[in-house]
Design goal:
Elements (H helix, E strand, L loop, with lengths): L1 H12 L49 E2 L5 E2 L37 E2 L2 E2 L5 E2 L3 E2 L34 E3 L7 E3 L36 E2 L5 E2 L1 H5 L37 E2 L6 E2 L19 E2 L2 E2 L17 E4 L2 E2 L6 E2 L3 E4 L48 E6 L3 E6 L4 E5 L14 E6 L7 E6 L3 E6 L4 E5 L14 E5 L10 E6 L3 E6 L4 E5 L14 E6 L7 E6 L3 E8 L4 E8 L14 E6 L7 E6 L3 E6 L6 E10 L2 E13 L3 E6 L6 E8 L5 E8 L12 E7 L6 E6 L3 E6 L4 E6 L13 E7 L4
Length: 751
């Protein structure tokens, strides 16, 4: 009210203040208004009561003193009045501790204070838990100050324990109170956090851990679930083995060879190290396996050597082992016969129907149908060459089917193709009868004959060497005239300008040039028809004609041996009768130590192969190399001897060199030696004019038969192909380049 009046007065006098600013308002206790510094004023208690002012007597009467302060006498005490009202529950008030300290409160020291609620604050007091005195805040004191014995390190009774009030106390646990304490493993459901997997170090697989009435673990349910070490394999993937129980597993059904299994301590791993190995461990157990990984022991062919890809028909790659450790794995092998790809580096010539464009002709055969064999090499369906002969500058060859081809010089029609044009490639001889089995070449003429005695000749005929009753050269075959009536020709041999033939009755006939008696009929007159050699009535065979002479094997019944008879030119001792006088009738070769088995006739020398052991060898006569020099030998002299080899030879009527074949009687291997003229490498690839001594020619060892021309030579290889070497000025090597001299054999191609 006072305030309202004051405000009204203020509002009234404010407009007049400009007139008199000396008027003052004065506050006064007793005016009913609570002025600053007043708690109350008269009956105005500022809406306070004993209770609102925090006094304990909330029903007391609060009054206002004349000094405008509260009269609290009937309100009683209150917290904060610095008077300890013990009856109202105060222990202290402000700084008034009522004479109390930490010590008389049972603490050993420190400073006690009073809380805002007028209670002792002993947090600043110090007690000595473990000092053997039961102090405030302590439930026990066993002087140990450690947990786990009933009285904790803070001198409090631990859960699950009962402690006496003694110092030190006696603390005991109570089994059955549901709290596992002290020496109790458990109590009720309090398992101290243990379960079946951790209870006793045994890794049980399941179950529920329980507690007995004696507060000990009950693992019955745990054990029922099994554990590693119980000797029984637990299913469901829990264990692979347990002690001696392997769940039916054995070394064998685990993929190993027989042995002993062991179970590792985790019951998860079966140790197979004492099994007898397994397929796939990289080590072949030879009692059970043939291979394992890279350890291979294949020997399917039984040669005692480890097999590789080549033993299975492959050329390259690495042999492997299949997953059964028994079967060779061929996926790492490559390139084989039959894979459809021709592999020349591995000796393949063809693959099935793929002949790589090769034909019999391109291989050097005259005819046949080429095929591919199971070994991917040509199957030999081509017709081989069986005979080759050579003259002064031409060559002819006979195929296995009886056809004859010739090439080289044809100036006299000696190629037999109906022309006189030289040819550097083989051309077929026209008009020959079927069944040709033999072939012979003179200087510039050629003859072919059958096994039934049919003879055909062609080429130069100026001396009647074709025997057709004329002296006219023929470019195609003609039949000799004057053939024996009651006999037939067996072997035909052409000399340089004459021809001789023996019969199956042991007689000899000749025709052609006879100026030196080379027809042997007792005259020196040329003959264009066959004349019989004098003095040979039977028992002759193997006639051989040289330059201007001829020789024949003759069975000497008087001495039971085979001698050699010769006739014609003897200027170089070709007849070996001890003189150098020509003879137009046969004379006996002297100087032979044994029966002769074969005659070799060159241009002006001849040789005979001995027939018997231990005198096997070769004896020669005429103009011949002996000891590195040419000499005239008017009687036979031994050139090669020995009991371990069989000797044969080849030469020709225009040749001054000889091929000598030495067949080992023990191994059947053949070595070729040569001797004589080598001006054009016809006798050896070695660059020397003569082969002065019998010399092995390794490049010729593969040839089965030879032909010796004047300046070139030819041979038939084991596969039936034809090869020539030496001079090629007339194309006689079968090569288009007529300027070459071939040191080594060149294959003759027929396309």
């Amino acid at each position: 009210m006072k305030n309202i009046l004051f405000l009204s007065f203020f509002l009234f006098v404010w407009p007049l203040s400009g007139c008199d600013d000396g008027v003052k308002v004065k506050e006064a206790c007793g005016d009913g208004f609570i002025d600053p510094g007043e708690e109350c004023d008269g009956d105005n208690l500022h809406e306070q009561t004993c209770e609102s002012l925090g006094h304990y007597n909330r029903f007391g009467t609060l009054r206002c003193l004349p000094t405008c302060l509260y009269d609290r006498d009937e309100c009683g005490g209150r917290c904060g009045d610095n008077t300890v009202d013990a009856g109202d529950g105060e222990q202290c008030d402000g700084e008034n501790m009522n004479g109390q300290t930490c010590q008389n409160q049972g603490f050993t020291g420190g400073t006690m204070s009073c809380t805002a609620g007028c209670l002792f604050d002993t947090s600043g007091c110090e007690s000595a838990c473990g000092n053997g005195h039961l102090e405030p805040g302590e439930e026990c004191d066993d002087q140990a100050r450690q947990d786990g014995d009933g009285c904790s390190a803070d001198c409090l009774v631990e859960p699950g324990w009962d402690c006496t009030g003694d110092v030190p106390p006696v603390c005991t646990t109570t089994c059955g109170d549901g709290i596992a304490a002290g020496g109790e493993m458990c109590d009720g459901t309090d398992l101290r956090g243990a379960d079946c997997q951790s209870v006793d170090g045994t890794p049980y697989y399941g179950g529920s851990l329980a507690c007995t009435q004696d507060c000990e673990y009950d693992v019955t349910a745990c054990q029922a679930s099994g554990w590693c070490g119980d000797g029984l394999v637990q299913g469901g993937g829990l264990e692979a083995c347990d002690e001696e129980d392997f769940g039916g597993a054995t070394c064998e059904n685990l993929g190993f060879h027989p042995g002993t299994l062991q179970c590792l301590g985790d019951c998860q791993t079966i140790d197979t190290q004492f099994c007898g190995g397994s397929c796939g461990d990289g080590v072949a157990q030879l009692s059970y396996e043939t291979c394992d990984g890279a350890d291979l022991h294949f020997d399917l062919n039984g040669d005692g050597l480890p097999d590789d890809c080549t033993d299975f028909g492959y050329y390259e790659g690495e042999l492997g082992c299949d997953t059964d450790c028994q079967t060779p794995l061929l996926s790492g092998c490559s390139l084989s016969c039959g894979d459809g790809v021709i592999s020349p580096l591995h000796g393949e010539e063809c693959e099935a129907e793929d002949l790589n464009g090769v034909t019999c002709a391109s291989l050097g055969y005259a005819s046949g149908t080429l095929g591919c064999g199971d070994d991917c090499r040509f199957d030999g369906g081509c017709t081989p060459w069986v005979r080759v002969v050579a003259g002064l500058g031409h060559t002819c060859a006979l195929s296995g089917e009886g056809t004859v081809y010739c090439w080289g010089d044809n100036s006299s029609g000696q190629l037999g193709d109906g022309t006189t044009v030289d040819s550097t490639t083989p051309v077929p001889v026209v008009g020959l009868p079927a069944g040709i089995t033999g072939l012979t070449a003179g200087g510039r003429h050629t003859c072919a004959f059958t096994g039934t005695g049919v003879v055909r000749c062609w080429g130069a005929n100026e001396y009647g060497q074709l025997g057709d009753g004329t002296f006219v050269q023929r470019s195609s075959p003609v039949a000799p005239a004057g053939e024996p009536v009651m006999d037939s020709y067996l072997t035909v041999s052409a000399g340089l300008n004459h021809t001789c033939a023996d019969t199956n009755g042991g007689l000899v006939y000749c025709w052609g040039r006879n100026h030196l008696g080379q027809l042997g009929n007792g005259t020196n007159t040329d003959s264009a028809t066959a004349v019989q050699v004098s003095g040979i009535l039977m028992l002759a065979s193997g006639v051989a004609s040289g330059g201007d002479y001829s020789c024949v094997l003759w069975i000497n019944m008087s001495f039971n041996r085979t001698d050699v008879l010769c006739w014609g030119d003897n200027s170089q001792g070709q007849l070996a009768d001890g003189t150098q006088t020509p003879s137009n009738v046969p004379v006996t070769v002297t100087g032979l130590s044994d029966s002769a088995a074969q005659i070799v006739a060159g241009q002006d020398f001849a040789c005979a192969a001995h027939a018997h052991i231990p005198n096997h060898g070769l004896s020669c006569w005429g103009y011949f190399l002996v000891g590195g020099s040419y000499v005239i030998m008017p009687s036979a002299q031994s050139i090669l001897t020995g009991s371990t080899h069989e000797y044969t030879g080849t030469s020709g009527p225009a040749a001054r060199y000889v091929f000598m074949s030495l067949r080992n009687l023990s191994t059947s291997s053949v070595e070729i030696q040569t001797l004589g003229d080598n001006a054009y490498h016809q006798a050896s690839p070695v660059n020397m004019p003569e082969v002065y001594l019998p010399t092995h020619q390794p490049s010729m060892d593969g040839f089965g038969s030879f032909a010796a021309g004047a300046e070139h030579a030819c041979g038939i290889a084991a596969d039936g192909t034809l090869w020539c070497w030496g001079r090629n000025n007339k194309g006689q090597l079968g090569d288009p380049n007529t300027s070459i001299v071939a040191e080594n054999p060149l294959k003759v191609l027929f396309q």
